[in-house]
Write a structure and sequence with these properties.
Number of strands: 6
Distance between the termini: 62 Å
Structural class: alpha+beta
C-alpha cells in the first residue's frame, strides 16, 4: 500500500508553485539589461523589444515576492487576470506586454494585490531606482568587472547598500540588477539565496540600440 500512498502524493509534490498569496517576506525588483537579453534570446525570437532604435536599457523583469529563502510562484488568487490594456500599458518599462503578463502570472499572483495595484507598485518601484546614466552613453560593447555595474547603481542610489543589490550574469554577459525591497518598498538586505553576485572580471555589456 505504500506505493499507492506515494502515487497519491506525488502530483502534489511535483506541481510547481501553488503557495498561498500574500505570504512572503520581501520583494526583489529585477531589472534586466535589454541588450543582453536581445543578444541571447530576443533577436532570435524577433521580439519588438529588440527592434533597432527601440532604446531599451534596463527594463522591468519583475517585482518578485520572496521568502527569506526561496520564493512563491503561480499562487492561487481570487484576483482576476490583467486585461490586454493593462499589460500593454506596462510595455514601456517591460519591453513587451508579454513580459508584463508573465510577471503577473508567475509572481504578481503571490502578492495578493489586484493586477492594477501590482502593476502600479511595480512601476513605482522601477521608477524609484535611478539607472546609472553612464550606461546609456556606451556606443560599443565593453568588457568589465560585474562589480562596476553594482558600484554604478550604488553611486546613483545613495539609499542602497552593497547587501541590498546583486548583479547577475548569463552566458558571460551582464544580465540583471536585482534590488531587495521591504513589503513597503524600502531598500533592505537581500536573503542569502538572492545575494549571489556575478564575480566575472570581463563580463560583456552591449550598448543600447
Amino acid at each position: 500500500m505504500r506505493w499507492l500512498a506515494l502515487l497519491l502524493i506525488w502530483p502534489l509534490a511535483a506541481w510547481p508553485g501553488g503557495e498561498r498569496a500574500g505570504q512572503f517576506d520581501y520583494y526583489v525588483l529585477a531589472l534586466s539589461w535589454s541588450p543582453s537579453w536581445c543578444a541571447l534570446e530576443g533577436d532570435a525570437r524577433g521580439s519588438p523589444q529588440c527592434d533597432r532604435d527601440a532604446g531599451f536599457g534596463w527594463i522591468l523583469h519583475g517585482l518578485w515576492p520572496q521568502y527569506e529563502r526561496g520564493w512563491p510562484s503561480y499562487c492561487p488568487t481570487a484576483e482576476p487576470s490583467p486585461t490586454r490594456r493593462e499589460t500593454a500599458e506596462m510595455a514601456d518599462i517591460t519591453g513587451t506586454s508579454g513580459l508584463a503578463w508573465h510577471s503577473w502570472n508567475k509572481h504578481g499572483r503571490c502578492s495578493r494585490l489586484s493586477s492594477e495595484d501590482y502593476f502600479k507598485a511595480a512601476r513605482a518601484a522601477f521608477e524609484a531606482v535611478a539607472k546609472p546614466p553612464v550606461l546609456r552613453q556606451l556606443d560599443e560593447s565593453v568588457r568589465l568587472p560585474a562589480r562596476v555595474i553594482e558600484q554604478a547603481f550604488l553611486e546613483a542610489n545613495p539609499g542602497l547598500a552593497p547587501d541590498m543589490i546583486t548583479i547577475t550574469c548569463k552566458s558571460r554577459r551582464i544580465q540583471e540588477a536585482r534590488i531587495c525591497l521591504t513589503r513597503d518598498f524600502d531598500p533592505r538586505p537581500c536573503g542569502a539565496d538572492v545575494r549571489q553576485d556575478c564575480r566575472m572580471h570581463d563580463a560583456l555589456l552591449d550598448p543600447i540600440r
